[in-house]
């Protein structure tokens, strides 16, 4: 009897252990930590890859095919270097049996594209694909100490501090995974450090680590670049000056560049933030941007390196910050060496949720101008908020500058279609860090992806990018629940609602943060919460929101018309006149270009004040809707990513409420009009929000 009891309880214990282990195992099978990004594939099938050229890059291409092959087992796939006038560098031709290209990199990008299409069950016949830009770069704002300026996904994947420069196997593995992800979308270069650059970046010990990074990313077709501090000759070289026309300074840079190329023969070049936000530059010595850029360009030229010289310049004494880059750079057109590229942010101010395109695009004829987009969501909710940014970039790239008549889009002004120049390029400020999923928010991965895809093809549509990303990132067989899912229910219940949410998300952020052309309404807390009231004495006025909203008893908005700062004059006709006239200015940019009276009649028939209230409200309602969309798709995704995104959408909704209430209640102190009664009432008090740290208040 006793024995039976012992046996029974042992069996019971075994059963409990088994059930427990099994259920843990089930969970683990479905845990998706996001590290694979969009590169998840099922187990590959055998394939014979033929490639006559053996180099590190073609070797990568061969492996890519072998690791990802989902086609007929035992098929033969050919990677072939050919002559083909239809192909530009890095471009490729896909055929039913493989990839043709004129360069090794073309074979690599073609291999990735072939497999992507295979996963989509596309019947490949003959596809030619060429990149829009020669240089497609990520800009990392990573500091040598490992922190990242405006980074929301953990510490740097490249740097851990001056005293920790040893390269580990783990580092190398991570850099290869990073490079592979970039290669899969055609990104071919990376600037490894912050534009607010430390001179130490050019010290021999740091350069050694840079060379180690270059070694790991090279087989994936990527070059490395560095941001430099213009005062390096003084700070590092102990010279008396950093004047770009000084002989010793020129020799110092020549020697430094030579040292770099000895370590990294294919080094890409320098990115420079000069005379901007307190950074040193040629103007400190009475020289121009061209003098500074050309000195570096001459040093880099023998090695085929480039200088990307940023146009993010503004002085506190100017009346309109939005005009300054154009004023400083356009007169220098024609003075830059051909390996200098001017790098301008997409908008004239600073990566705001919505800006018009920078008038520098379409203004220069003899100088390459490249767009700098911001992938990291400094002003769009960090990695707490879901904002798919392709629509913002598409909006910029497809804007018509009229430089050479109608159809002169920003895309065409920057990719060489209008003026054929030596280089064409585009860059994106990275959102990558040491977080397991690289980007902090699962949906922030889609912005890295979208940047790469638009850099490759600047005419792609946001919707098709979203579809590609989603279908590669979430798979039917990762679903947590056991409801029966088939292709039809997957599409109807998961893909379509999520695509719609992604496509609506950026406009939602614009609406609950700063609609109708409002900009820079952020608190001083990390550019996150609302702060239209923020204007402490002693702070530069152009760093305070009232400088941008200019609200008063009559109305709101920055008058950049011909009666105001005349920023409209920096755009070509007929756009200039269209923007100048309050009636023809697009309403989504109205308060960017005009100071408009509270009772101005909008196209909807509402007054400006009421319209503003409606916009803020619709942004908040969208944030609520996103929660519902996501909760409903729970059965279709793995538990880990479901919960992560769900928690973040909850916070996004709470923060949207804070933004809406804070802004509307504050503007109401000027408008003195009621929030339309059919809209929801605010739930916060203005005095509370004005004192609160709105970045931290919903941090749970
Ligand atoms: C601003 C950022 C600041 C950057 C600067 C830049 O707040 O951190 O250093 O842009 O782009 O948006 O140089």
Overview of the structural elements:
The chain has 700 residues and is of the alpha/beta class. The protein has 3 domains: 47-129, Chitobiase/beta-hexosaminidase domain 2-like (Chitobiase, domain 2, 2-Layer Sandwich); 135-472, Glycosidases (TIM Barrel), CATH 3.20.20.80; 515-558 and 595-697, Alpha-Beta Complex (Alpha-d-glucuronidase, C-terminal Domain), CATH 3.90.1330.10. Helices cover 39% and strands 10% of the residues. It contains 20 helices and 15 strands. It has an 8-stranded parallel β-barrel. A 5-stranded mixed β-sheet has the order 1-2-4-3-5, covered by helices on one side. Helix 2 (56-68) packs parallel to helix 3 (104-119), helix 13 crosses helix 14 (487-513) and helix 18 runs antiparallel to helix 19 (639-671). The model is unreliable at 16-29 (pLDDT under 50). Beta-D-glucopyranuronic acid is lined by residues 149-150, 195-196, 273, 277, 312, 350-351, 378.
Q: How many separate helices?
A: 20
What spatial order of strands do you see in the largest sheet? 6-7-8-9-10-11-12-13
- Our count of domains comes out at 3
The name of the CATH architecture of the largest domain is: Alpha-Beta Barrel
Q: Could you name the CATH class of the largest domain?
A: Alpha Beta
* Radius of gyration, CA atoms, in whole angstroms: 27 Å
Full CATH superfamily name of the largest domain = Glycosidases
State the separation between the terminal residues, measured CA to CA.
Answer: 56 Å
Looking at CATH, which topology of the largest domain would you report?
TIM Barrel
| Helix proportion | 25-40%
Low-confidence runs (pLDDT<50, min 5 residues)? 16-29
The strand count comes to 15
Distinct small-molecule ligands in the complex: beta-D-glucopyranuronic acid
Quote the beta fraction: 5-15%
Mean pLDDT, all residues: 95
Shape: globular
């Amino acid at each position: 009897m006793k024995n039976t009891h012992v046996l029974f309880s042992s069996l019971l214990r075994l059963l409990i252990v088994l059930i427990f282990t099994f259920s843990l195992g089930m969970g683990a099978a479905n845990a998706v930590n996001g590290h694979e990004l969009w590169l998840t594939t099922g187990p590959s099938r055998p394939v014979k890859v033929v490639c006559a050229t053996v180099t590190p890059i073609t070797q990568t291409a061969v492996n890519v095919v072998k690791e990802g092959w989902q086609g007929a087992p035992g098929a033969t796939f050919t990677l072939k270097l050919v002559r083909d006038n239809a192909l530009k560098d890095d471009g490729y031709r896909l055929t039913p049996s493989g990839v043709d290209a004129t360069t090794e990199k073309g074979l690599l990008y073609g291999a990735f594209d072939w497999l992507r299409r295979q996963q989509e069950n596309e019947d490949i016949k003959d596809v030619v694909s060429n990149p829009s830009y020669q240089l497609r770069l990520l800009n990392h704002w990573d500091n040598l100490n490992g922190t990242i300026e405006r980074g929301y996904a953990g510490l740097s994947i490249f740097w851990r501090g001056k005293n920790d420069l040893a390269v580990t196997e783990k580092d190398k593995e991570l850099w290869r995974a990073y490079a592979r992800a970039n290669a899969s979308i055609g990104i071919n270069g990376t600037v490894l450090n912050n534009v607010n650059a430390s001179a130490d970046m050019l010290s021999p010990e740091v350069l050694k680590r840079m060379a180690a990074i270059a070694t790991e990313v090279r087989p994936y077709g990527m070059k490395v670049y560095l941001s430099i501090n213009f005062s390096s000759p003084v700070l590092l070289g102990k010279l008396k000056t950093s004047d770009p026309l000084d002989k010793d300074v020129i020799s110092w840079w020549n020697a430094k560049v030579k040292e770099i190329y000895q370590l990294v023969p294919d080094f890409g070049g320098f990115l420079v933030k000069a005379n901007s936000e307190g950074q040193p530059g040629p103007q400190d010595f009475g020289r121009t941007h061209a003098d500074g850029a050309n000195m570096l360009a001459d040093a880099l030229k023998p090695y085929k390196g480039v200088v990307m010289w940023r146009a993010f310049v503004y002085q506190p004494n100017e009346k309109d910050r939005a005009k300054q880059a154009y004023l400083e750079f356009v007169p220098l057109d024609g003075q830059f060496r051909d390996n200098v590229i001017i790098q301008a942010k997409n908008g004239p101010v600073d990566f705001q949720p919505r800006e018009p395109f920078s008038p520098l695009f379409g203004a220069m004829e003899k100088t390459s101008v490249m767009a700098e987009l911001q992938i990291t969501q400094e002003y769009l909710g960090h990695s707490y908020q879901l904002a798919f940014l392709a629509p913002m970039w598409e909006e910029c790239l497809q804007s018509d500058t009229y430089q050479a008549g109608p159809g002169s889009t920003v895309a065409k002004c920057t990719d060489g279609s209008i003026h054929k120049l030596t280089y064409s390029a585009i860059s994106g400020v990275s959102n990558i860090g040491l977080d397991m999923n690289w980007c902090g928010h699962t949906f922030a991965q889609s912005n890295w992806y979208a940047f790469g895809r638009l850099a490759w093809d600047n005419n792609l549509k946001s919707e098709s990018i979203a579809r590609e990303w989603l279908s590669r990132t979430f798979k039917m067989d990762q679903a947590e629940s056991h409801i029966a899912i088939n292709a039809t229910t997957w599409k109807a219940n998961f893909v379509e609602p999520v695509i719609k949410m992604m496509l609506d998300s950026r406009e939602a952020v614009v609406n609950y943060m700063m609609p109708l052309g409002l900009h820079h309404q952020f608190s001083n807390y990390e550019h996150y919460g609302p702060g239209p009231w923020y204007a402490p004495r002693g702070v530069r006025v152009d760093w305070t929101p009232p400088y941008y909203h200019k609200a008063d008893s009559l109305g709101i908005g920055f008058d950049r018309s011909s009666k105001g700062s005349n920023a409209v004059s920096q755009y070509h006709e007929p756009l200039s006149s269209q923007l100048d006239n309050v009636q023809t200015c697009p309403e989504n940019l109205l308060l960017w270009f005009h100071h408009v009276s509270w009772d101005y009649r909008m196209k909807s028939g509402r007054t400006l004040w009421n319209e503003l209230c409606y916009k803020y409200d619709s942004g908040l309602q969208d944030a609520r809707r996103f929660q519902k969309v996501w909760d409903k798709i729970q059965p279709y995704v793995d538990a880990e990513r479901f919960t992560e995104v769900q928690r973040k959408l909850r916070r996004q909704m709470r923060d949207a409420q804070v933004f809406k209430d804070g802004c509307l209640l504050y503007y109401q102190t000027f408008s003195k009009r009621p929030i339309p009664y059919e809209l929801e009432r605010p739930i916060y008090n203005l005095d509370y929000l004005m004192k609160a740290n709105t970045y931290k208040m919903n941090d749970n």
